[in-house]
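Table 4 source record.
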Amino acid sequence: MLAILSALSLAQMVEWPVYGGDAGGTRFSAAKQIHRTNVARLKEAWRINTGGLYQPQRGKAAALETTPLYVNGTLYLTSALGRVIAADPATGKQRWTFDPQVDPTRGYGDFTNRGVSYHASGLIIGVTVDARLFVLDAKDGKRRWEVNLREGLRIAPQEFPEYEQTSPPCIIGDRIVIGSAVADNGRTDMPSGEIRAYDVRSGKLLWTWDPAPNTRMGGANAWSVIVADERRGLVFVPTGSASPDYYGGRRTGLDQYANSVLALEAATGKLKWSFQTVHHDLWDYDVASSPALVKVRGQDAVAVGSKTGHLFLLDRDTGRPLFPVEERPVPASDAEGEQASPTQPFPAKPPSLSPHQASLRPECSERAAGLRNEGIFTPPSERGSLLVPGNIGGLHWGGVSYDPGLGLIVAPSNNVPAIVRLVRRDRFRDEQRGEKFDMEFTAQTGTPYGMARQLLLGTNGTPCQTGPAGFLTAVDTTTGEIRWQTPLTLNLGGPISTAGGLTFLGATVDGFFRAFDTGTGKQLWQAKLPASARSTPMTYVHQGRQYVVISAGGHDPKLGPLGDAVVAFALPEPK
């Protein structure tokens, strides 16, 4: 949902929501009607039920993760199945709707839709989980054009759910820049991860940038949110791991553009620079967080979060780290044919926002006994490896917010360990059929091993580590140090920060929407949602009243109810 409104004043047009027009990914709003001293009075103002709840007997349920977009007095949002809804910002009443007719029965991997984008000519730009890109008229929702994004890939999907679109495209000038969501652990040659640019008015393909040209390597795709710097004419692209995730013996080397942030010229698609956060990924440590364009000691920078828990602060023009990054020796792999990278990058500042060693509760220690456990970059193994943090991150797709006045980056993270085990090809099917611990199996076809993984949870379903399952952390961009850290439960979803000195977060599995003092991390307000919010909130001012809006779709049926509600909060109107 990143949109740049060329030739128009941002202040005139839009109270920028989170990544629905926040071109630089800062997730900061200048709105300050709601502030530290009155936020405790915040009440629900309205609620929309979007529809689109779908839960098959097998496979993933559709997940409501939309972040609404406020433009010119209208709110635009999506259902879990990608239906676009234009609504009255004061009441939530529907003005028009567009249904892209997604077939929910196709067995999608990441079954969600995170919202739409906007172009200054009055266009709404959307995507569907079945990999279509479309443009609508913002006034009435009539479709202008649509393209099938499965066409023209270097490696085409073999099965329908292998190639999806979940995050809103980036809009810079008259270009739509878009990545893809690839199921990246099924085999060696999963679909390729090209980044592409289209003309916003015609749908014409303008350029393609391939992270692994002239290879059979799939993945390395950009499934999170791409951000733009219009003045520089650059887009900043976060990429994930190459395929398959947990075995790299068929993709030797560093996999140079996987697990990276790429600076591409928006006009041509030419690579200006790249920075890799993990070499030759064996852990599913994507750059899942959207990059954020920030200031570090007065210098233009880009903040890049990794599932490792590392936050890298880079020069925006060169990609050079603004605090030292050290290549440290890491453990070698003992898997057949695997050559793990001998070193990995560790930033000196800030320190990791997630611990890299697990301290387990006694009930979990027995399950972890005998596992390889040599720190964050312990390679997957046949006997099983304990990974901390696990594959959800660290810094996850919820990303960060940035308060420029306070000079703080605020980031949610998780500390939940996971078990990953490589399973010999000749034993894979038998072990999969005999599984007793609800582990996730993937074939990794074309390699000597399948894979089994599982978050390490106790008998009551809570994470096995001692201490909090996650944190909300503020990083000082002047010093690179952690300013404060507040405990959280398990969380997926992002924060926003406002000029009122507040950071809002609804990502936790306990179903609460919270406001924190951005300067101190102190919780100032909370409200119970109809379901937990695996999403990122937004805020806007409409007819003189500030609203804070979040979608409450639930995290997982095992953790609580699913939902289809988008809920708005505001201060009580004066009597």
